[in-house]
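Incident log, structure service

09:12 report received: a user says their structure output differs between two submissions of the same chain.
09:20 pulled the input from the user's history:
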Amino acid sequence: MSYCSYVRENPLDDLNRRYHDTQYGFPLLEDDALFERLMLEINQAGLSWALILKRAENFHLAYDGFNIDRVAAYTEEDRLRLLGDAGIIRNRLKINAAIENAQRIQSLRKEYGSFRDWLDAHHPLTLEQWTRLFKQAFVFTGTEIVKEFLVSTAYLPGAHETDCPIFIQLSTLDLPWRSQNSSP
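09:34 re-ran on a clean worker, output below:
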């Protein structure tokens, strides 16, 4: 079932509807926002997206607004703080992935200028190519995480059905997947 179908069939699910209508498939321009979305997708692995949406604000607060430089500088004390925070997903591998991936984004920025510029420099790629690239560049990034990150940030098509009002709204924007004839 597509996300569009899900929100149509579950009109009382305001949390998913708001995300679908205002964030899913919309381009993100700021590196910290891209990092946040990647980390939310990583934290969703094995869990429901609804749980992640319910805890999104807690994640944002716990990880200092997903400021890449702050997260990259986290110490063991910060790891322990996050492991004790019941408002987020307290998984050591996912917490370590946030810190490690922030450090890796810092390295990418040295060569590309920004995380977004790194994405743009490699666009367009197929999902298989993106997945290989993400596995080389980051930790805790399997095919589904990479796919959802790229679809949700408009680097790959498929966020919305063509008859969805949000697809029509997004059709007025310069979306990465549309701008360079990318392949899903």
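09:41 both user submissions now match this output. Likely a transient worker issue. Closing.
09:42 reviewer note: The chain is about 65% helix and 0% strand. The domain at 3-179 is CATH 1.10.340.30 (Endonuclease III; domain 1).
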